[in-house]
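To: structure desk
From: M.T.
Subject: fold request, one chain
Message: Could you run this one when you get a chance? Sequence is below, nothing fancy, just the single chain.
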Amino acid sequence: MIAGTVTAEGVPTIPIPVRGQNWLAVIDTGFNGDLELPDCFRPLVNPRFHQRSQAQLAGGQSIFEDIYLVDFPFDGQVVTAEASFVSGAEILVGTQFLREYRLEINFRARTVLLERLP
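Reply: Done. Structure tokens follow.
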């Protein structure tokens, strides 16, 4: 189980340990992919080019982006996931990445729980 928090701004986050440092990742329920990672993560996750893909953004805008297979530490193991890289500093975790989990967000208590399903 992974425990996180809801920020004062109402954003659900979870901690992700990468190479001895904890990073906060945003659970983005509007993102149906796996991961969006900051460019600084490239040397940490062994990226392998997978495909060029068209993505639909929330405002109806369409973009093309390179998708990589990465080795990403999550829930005590390293998993292979699809990721795009951006110049920002935020990690986004999408719904496809969480397909084997139950997600509970309690906005009033400001808690986030991720539980792996059997």
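Reply (cont.): The chain has one domain: 2-116. Let me know if you need anything else for the meeting.
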